[in-house]
Amino acid sequence: MRFSSPLSPSDARPSRRAVLALAAAAPLTLAAPASAAAAPTIGGERLGLAGVQVQGGGPLPKKLTARSWLVADHDSGAVLAACNAHRRLAPASTLKMLFADTLLKRFERTLTHTVTDADLADIPAGSSLVGIKPGITYTVEQLWLGVFLRSGNDAVHVLSMMNGGIAKTVAEMQAKAEDLQALDTHVVSPDGFDHPGQLSSAYDLTLFARHGLKNGDFRGYCSTRIANFPAGGKKTFQIQNTDRLLTGAWGLGAYRGLIGVKNGYTSNAGNTFTGAATRGGRTLLVTVMHPEPGGNGVYQETASLLDWGFAHAGKLQPVGTLAEPLSEGGARATPAPGPQASAHGSAAAAHGGSSWGLIGGAGGVAALLAGGVYALRGRGRRRAAEDGRHRR
What is the pLDDT of residues 59-69, one digit of tens each? Predict the structure, then answer.
């Protein structure tokens, strides 16, 4: 949605009805008014607080630059430590974990599909691709390998078209996120490509990974290092997983015990990664979002948090918990307080990240809406959640 306001500061303020109408139309979630700030946070009150949350154990790793991160026990769901767990940020291709959670059980692995030009239409320029070509027949298993190993947006689009189209798939992903109680997540595209309002959080990405790893196919795909991919006829070419902690590429050693799960990167939004590893019978999940740019930072910070978690897990008091899916008997929770979302604005500027501003596009609606709401309450200040921008 795009909105351009002709009103000057001297114009009359919008009526309550107009403000409510804008609220229904805006695709973003704005910072909650103070009256709602005391509402319970999904996963526990401490996860709704800004900054580092940890209780017990030894000192955290010294060099942690990520805007948001979380360490959790896979089996119990206990959150062992977190920083800005519910801050809403651009997820990059880690959103593909939710895509897999939503569609993985939809088609048999051996089902074949011959790709058409329509299947590959409208893939945004600059997307990561596995190399799917029209006229070639692929199995569902091969398509999923393209999603997990090469983060192929072309594979995502083909599977989405097999599922009935992009819009249907996006709606189902959003419904799945709500069932998983990942309420920081707003889905705009199934591939995680850069769109205004496409957001998630370290908490939500960890939920996606935990849910996915309970599925044998998901676990198998995300732990696959190398696979052969169809090139037409009897020819194939080799694809390698882009998860550097799994493969030990680009100057990194493979992390001992790593299972997967999914990495993402865009020049505008930076790096994101959710990793899972098992040692001594314990499986930990770590999500790191948007560390300082450059090099292997997202992997190094993930590895250091995994090391810390394994070393101190028995000495820690949980600071929260990962919610269970509603469809599996999980107790319904309520969203995190709004300040986590609005806090990203200053953080993005400090880290040099690109953001969708409050002027133009959906952000224009957000700015007007925030101003109207707080005007009606007699407040002079406005707070609006800003969107993270990314390309994948």
Answer: 999 999 999 99
